[in-house]
């Protein structure tokens, strides 16, 4: 019988007393390593149990790395169709810059450069769905402080982080490894803290003290920057500057800080599986390590770190609202192969009222370009996203109207 051998699996033995052969030197954490053989026709590896033990240990991926593992647990190994598409990560700064970089200096209302910036942003949002911005007005010291505080959170002792370790993302603050740990085909090599910023900020006592002030300061900056970006994007669509703001598209905000430790087998897993973001707009700060990639033209492009820059990507909801004038883009993060962690921080901007109905803006619908998507509530939209009923672009495809040859519509219901 053909077998696939995985040389390491995590066995968490908190309070179990069971003995297993240790394949690596003993380490002072609550798990041990054992060799595991996965049978191709008869499953002998209890994936569900291993995932549960990992989750209940609350050590996260960083805890695995700190234990000294040299091979990753099998539930982190991605299927061949994913691994075959991975490309070696190159050092930041090498190669040709392709993802657009937009300079926001002098782009205020009434300025001479504004129309040029609007055109640049419209082209980037409709072609790539991704772009970087420089001279955006957020002080560099704010960026540095916030990033350092998030890195500091992840590098605290496990017992400190465990105080906010939970899988209920509806709470104000949650720390975990892989939000879809129990549902995905394979886990990804990262840990995450998520903090609700709006419509109502998480209770201050819930936000870890190590990053509390920095998160509040960052949110103030994001609200100003987000309003500015949405105004430019509205003008690119030919609608009123405040249209997206009036639709409350900036009120629902969540900050997510990912921590990607060095992976001992980066060719077998990913840092973040390919996906599109569900909301309106995402503002990302990445450090110097790199690894973020965007799908374009059938291949993957590196989004190379630029000191002080912020990465902006279009979400599925903005693709729908714009009647597909703007495009959300599939993106992913490679597993970190460097000897230092990668840290990134993203703010997801979405409407604040989940009972409101959304669909293409009426101003963007015409006989020449009818509505491409049907209407829906944000509650329905986000429920489908979090339940993982649909993957990647299937979320937008679900709400797409199919236009029949006789001119009638099928709303996919």
UniProtKB/TrEMBL annotation:
PROSITE patterns: FE2OG_OXY
The keyword NAD is annotated on this UniProt entry: no
Span of domain Fe2OG dioxygenase: 245-351
Keywords attached to this entry: Iron, Metal-binding, Oxidoreductase
The keyword Signal is annotated on this UniProt entry: no
GO molecular function, one term: metal ion binding
SUPFAM superfamilies to which the protein is assigned, alphabetical: Clavaminate synthase-like
Superkingdom, taxonomy of origin: Eukaryota
Family: Belongs to the iron/ascorbate-dependent oxidoreductase family.
The protein's name in its UniProt record: Fe2OG dioxygenase domain-containing protein
Organism: Quercus rubra
